[in-house]
Amino acid sequence: MTRTRRSVLATTAATLAVTGALISSPPANAAETDTAATTTAEVSPHAAQTIDDIGASGAWWVNDLQHFDPKVQARVAKLLFSEQGLDLSSYRYNIGGGGVAVTTPARAAEDFLDSDGSYDWSKDKGGQTFLRYAAKYGVKDLIGFVNSAPAQLTTIGQSCGGQLKAGSESDFAKYIADVTDHFARKGVKLDYISPFNEPDNDFGDCGQEGMQVTVDQRDDIVRALGAEQRARHQKTSIIADESSKTTQFVSELPQWISQPDTAQYVSKLAHHTYNNPTDGQLGNVYETATSVGKPSWASEICCFGKGSTGWNQEYDPTIDNALLMSRIIYKDFASAHDSAFQWWVALASGYGSDPTARNDDGWNDGLIYYDPDYATNGNQTLYFTKRYYALGQYSKFVRPGSVAHNVTGAPDGVEVSAYDRNGKWVVVVNNQNTTDTPLSLHFNSGTPVRAAQAVRTSATEDWAKVRKPSVSSGTVSATLAARSITTYVFDQKGHASSAVTGALVGKQSGKCLTAGTSGAAIATCTVGEDQSWSYDAKGALKGANGYLTVTSSGLTTAADYTGDASQRWLLNANGQILSEASGKCLDVSGQATADDSQVILYSCNGGPNEAWSRQ
Length: 615
Hints:
By secondary structure, the protein is of the alpha/beta class. It contains 10 helices and 38 strands. Helix 6 runs parallel beside helix 7 (279-292). The protein starts with 40 loop residues before the first strand and ends with a strand. Residues 1-21 and 23-37 have low confidence and may be disordered.
């Protein structure tokens, strides 16, 4: 969330490592190339996760825009929710806590609960306006989220700086359920409820609403809300715990969700990424989600800049910050294997000294900006950033139900993600390089037969229709414009999948993954069969002695494929090879480099002993 005192979360930018294809088949000889590509990236034949939604939040800008001309409000709704705009598939509605003691008026969200226990449903006019718009446009997932309970339910009677009163969990649950029922009666169904947002912080400076929820109280709230929903036959699902950092999510969520009768009420596991997570930390998100058996969502991020995906104060409406945003989306989907990406605020007013140019006085929290002095000068102009168009490169094309396939072997500085849906491929490509870059992309399932669309955002383009790439024998050839985000849509022929075969080389050791009679090790690379691995649409890694399999005692090989998660693997673009059973990485034990060193499963840490590439 936007807050000027959050500099404590600033971190050094993580270095992005783009490795070669983990397993590669040669490019088709007949493939036409726009320019000579030196490597061929591979679209995995094995499906990773299914995408639930891509969206943004309605805090806090709705409290300002309730005072705007209705025509401007309607335009904003169209920009966010229509097919001509972002076509968001989720929208986060802020269920306010009353704003008691909050010092920033726009962040003092009204609640509906009066002191006598009655309800005033006329409150939160702006919030309700845009929630109704989202419903009208058919946004798939409407999410109600809570920063603070109503002030009378907090320990200090404020909407910031306190906690939920002990013993008030049931009253809080009834309040949320009442709000849910009210909107349902008005034809607006909330699909999900997040009962506490960033529970690790009480926001004691009172610049915005916030309520600390300790780890041992989170399960109490979830159970109370789940039981209340069940008693009312509500179909609204619960997401939690929306910790500010992935490291908190990984350490704290297992503690409370493991409490008796709690996990049954939680549908999705939500985390924020304000710690600028490394590849290893994103892998830990996947491991945590796997251990709980529920999909993870990246449900909030903003406010990075100055060339880094870490927290920084800056206002940058240019392609530079848009490419940082697109990198974060790419990594959330490709490394954490999140099933949703939700941006923080769709609109904001903190553009600093100039809404059209980069400056250090504002914040990179919005997609679209408006004048903070609108009330006095009457200015209701909307100012667009490249982030708006960057999000649209995903949200307009990667629709709910799209199935992500990992892409390995992209050129340096290029990030490629691929999605399969309804007989079409959607490929989103970030070219972080300052020069045009060739891309050769080979598909190992659902052969693309022609490019139907090519849409690009760059320093000079906004969702521009551009030259379609050539397609031949399952290989796409394109030239990526410098500093650009391009989305390609391909018609697809059939769903046949082929296995890809090759050697896997450890980054740290320079030695090959070698099949043994019980598991795997590393050894000096040869052309032997024991170093040839086949990877197929089932996610199986088959070596000379059978399928690489996870057991309670470690890795082994099995002659038969059972279809169990213990024999399924994800090959990430960053070099990690993840077990779908445990979420852990293939790891050379002890960072050894000698022949016959054991390969084990270990929590992902981003180390070179967990990175694998093709020979």
